[in-house]
Task: structure prediction
Amino acid sequence: MAQKASATQKTAAPGLDAALARTLLRGMVLIRRFEEKAAEAYALGKIGGFLHLYIGEEAVAVGATSTLRREDYAIAAYREHGHCLAKGADPRRAMAELFGRIDGLCKGKGGSMHLFDRTVNFLGGHAIVGAHLPLATGVAFAIKYQGGDQVVVCYFGDGAVPQGEFHEAMNLAALWKLPVVFLCENNRYAMGTSVERALAETDIWKFGRAYNMACEPVDGMDVLAVREAVGRMVARARAGEGPALLEARTYRFRGHSMRDPAGAVYRTKDEVEKEKQRDPILLFRDRVQAARLLTEEDVRRIEKDVNDLVDDAVAFADGSPEPPLSELLTDIFKEG
Ligand SMILES: Cc1ncc(C[n+]2csc(CCOP(=O)(O)OP(=O)(O)O)c2C)c(N)n1
Ligand SMILES: [Mg+2]
Result:
């Protein structure tokens, strides 16, 4: 009995039970492992083009998605493997897309920056910084126009904030009370440019005030904090109370892309090491173990299951053929 009481106390998160702890931990471990394997495959020349890793930021996509229904929408920029997997995409088809193979989510024609999965309402994967924010507002407009009750979560980086599209999208969303949650992943850099060098106001959440929308910062390394904040904003949006801007403070442990593997030119070693102490997976793992929601054995099993799943995804991608020449002119928008 005494043990039970102390376990409840240490949980310190209302509604967190073993099943939810498992789901959140597994979701983050899956993204981490998927990307570690993708980095290996990239080094082996199996993935062409760019590859931007989300490692370090997993708590944002997993915490946010845990508040969504399957029919809700998510839309993201080009560092989107995590958001796509969190929304429920099949890791095999996601990996095959990175490999440029026919069984990929977009038949191998989109690649790493253009994952898209209509079956789970994941709307991309957008490589032009800031360009998907007006799309998110447009989707939210369509939902309202059609009388639906879905919500859109729009992930974007700090690098999109000085863009005009950010402000246009926020203004219309607020003016028309649209069901969209703008979720800025502030990892403090846009390629090699720090937010201090790019933004007149570095507390990004405060831009929400200018557009009369709910806004606040949230610890992006704490999956439960993200879940709590996004959950509240999603509930408001679903109830017709309009959009929100959240600033998740996070950090990418790797460089901008595989062409800048460590991001060592514009960040100090000390800074990176300090941030790694706040690894969202380790923090959450320790927390749920301390609260006795999961045992060490449970954690090991989750890691093993995920490793097997990702190995299988790589084998699937490897075995999938390249798109045939006949696919060259399909899926292309053409008027008239
Ligand atoms: C309109 C536009 N300008 C410039 C670029 C080149 N570019 C690619 S990624 C990037 C940085 C974006 O940083 P951020 O939005 O913070 O996302 P993060 O990479 O940190 O996830 C830039 C400037 C681009 N893709 N689109
Ligand atoms: Mg950034």
